[in-house]
Amino acid sequence: MTMQKRVSVAVGVVVLTGTALLAQQLHYPATKKVDQVDVYHGTKVADPYRWLEDDTSPQTAAWIEAENKVTFPYLEAIPYRPQLQARVKQLSDYAKYSSPSRKGPYYFFTKNEGLQDQSVLYIQKGLEGTPEVLIDPNTWEGGGTTRLGAFAPSADAKYAVYGISKSGSDWQQYKVMELGTKKTLPDTLDWVKVSGVAWQKDGFYYSRYPEPGTGKSEKAAINEDHRVYFHQVGTPQSQDRQIYEDAANPQRFNTVKTTDDERFALLTVSDRGKGKDGNALFARDLSRGEREFNPVVRDIGNESYGVVDNVGEKLLVETNKNAPNSRVVLVDPKRPEEANWKTILPERPEPLQGVSTAGGKIFATYLKDVTTHAYVYGLDGTLENEVELPGPGTAGGFGGNKDDTFVFYTFNSLNVPPTIFRYDIATKKSSVFRQPKVPGYNPDLFETKAVFYTSKDGTKIPMFIVHKKGLKLDGTNPTLLYAYGGFNIVQSPTFSAARLALLEQGFVYANANLRGGGEYGEAWHQQGMKLKKQNVFDDFIAAGEWLIANKYTSHERLAIQGGSNGGLLIGAVINQRPDLARVAIPQVGVMDMLRFQKFTIGFNWIADYGSSDNPEEFKALYAYSPLHNIKAGVKYPATLITTADHDDRVVPAHSFKYAATLQERASRDTPILIRIDTKSGHGASSQTKALETTGDIYAFIMYNLGLKPAPGTLQ
Question: Is 682 among the residues known to form the active site?
Answer without folding.
Answer: yes
